[in-house]
Every structure is written in C-alpha cells, then in structure tokens.
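Case 193 in the screening queue. Each case pairs one protein sequence with one candidate compound; here the compound is 2'-deoxyguanosine-5'-diphosphate. For every case the pipeline is the same: read the inputs, emit a complex structure as tokens, and attach any notable structural observations.

Predict complex for case 193.
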Amino acid sequence: MAEYDLKLLQKQMKEELSDDRYEHTLGVMYTAESLAMRYGVDMTKAAVAGLLHDCAKCIPNVQKIKICKKHDIEISEMEEKNPSLLHAKLGAYMAEEVYGINDPEILSAIRWHTTGKPDMSMLDIIIYMADYIEPNRDKAPDLKEIRKLSFENIEEALYRVLEGTLNYLSDRPETIDPMTKVSYDFYKWKLKK
Ligand code: DGI
Ligand code: FE
Ligand code: FE
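Case 193 output:
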C-alpha cells in the first residue's frame, strides 16, 4: 500500500491553485473523506483524489491544449470547443506524472470527476459528489437536499446531480459532452427511473 504525503500534496496544491480553488479543494478533500467513512471506502485514497481532482484547473486553456498535444493526450471535438473540460483528463495525467500518484482508482476518480461515466466505482462517485456538495459550493438551489441525500443514498444523489447538470446545459445542448449524457442514461437505467 502506497504511502502518501498529504501535507506535501496540500502544499503543492496551495501553490498551484488560486486561493478560491484551493479552498474548494480542501472542501472536496474533507467531504470526500467523510463520504468514504460513510461508505466504507479507503479514506486516504479519497483524501488524495479530493486534493488533486482539480490540479489542472488553473492552467490557462491554451496551455491545457498545448500540454495535451505534447503528451499525445487525445482531445475530443467537445474538449476542443470547451477546453475547460480538459482539466479532468489532464488532471489525471498530472496527478501521475507530476505528483507521483499511480493508484488507478485515484486516477480514475480524477479522470471522471467532471462528466462522470457509466458504472463508476464508489471512489469515483464520492469524488464526483464531494465536488458538488463541499461546503464552499453555493450555486445549486437543491444543495441542501442533495447534501443530505449524498449520505443516505449516494447513487440517487448522483442521478439527481447528473439530471441537474443536463438540465443546466440544455440551454446550449451543443456543449453537452457525450459522456455526461451516457452517464445520466446509465444511472437512469440502473435506478429504474
Ligand atoms: O472543476 P469544478 O468547477 O470544481 O467542477 P467540475 O469539474 O464538475 O466542472 C464543473 C463545470 O463543468 C460546470 O460548469 C459544468 C461543466 N460541465 C459538466 N459536464 C459538462 C460540463 N460542461 C460542458 N460544456 N459539457 C458537459 O457535458
Ligand atoms: Fe473539476
Ligand atoms: Fe472541483
């Protein structure tokens, strides 16, 4: 079992991220640890994934594209048009190459934290949900309910957030990443909605 220097990673994120993004990151880390306690997931993995999930977020979009091209990281048509979507994919890459994380479960949680994917692992779901419900978030109108539901039935909460994200993006359907829709369809089917 790999040992992680959480304090070092924390320091690195403080330097890499804007103040607001760093506060959000700490919120995701602590929330992910709490959800991991609730659902019997490795708390250290949840903390590391939470800490690093947005590690590529503050790289300017032009630079994101450059780094992806340089390292042969595939850029989809949707990501070309909305390069901020790339921070998840690039984040997983950097977590491994820059921050030395090689646990595939942690890297997967970072990789899929923005769009989700069908049949996510419990750690994937925990990071996806912690990103949405951490205490500094205040945008969504139904946050109070989603927060409670996350600790009662996390897949139900996940479904609600995927549904809300698609609704939110429906003003500009051409910007919906296919994976966001596929994730929603999967959980709609799984939860018999
Ligand atoms: O990085 P964060 O802001 O903490 O959170 P995130 O990684 O979930 O990114 C949130 C943003 O991503 C939010 O503004 C909605 C957007 N998003 C999620 N799915 C899609 C999407 N944007 C587009 N264009 N298409 C999607 O499918
Ligand atoms: Fe993110
Ligand atoms: Fe985030």
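Case 193 observations:
- The two ends are 39 Å apart (CA to CA).
- The pocket of 2'-deoxyguanosine-5'-diphosphate (ligand 1) is lined by residues 24, 54, 57, 82, 85, 113-115, 131, 165, 169, 175-177, 180 (CB under 6 Å).
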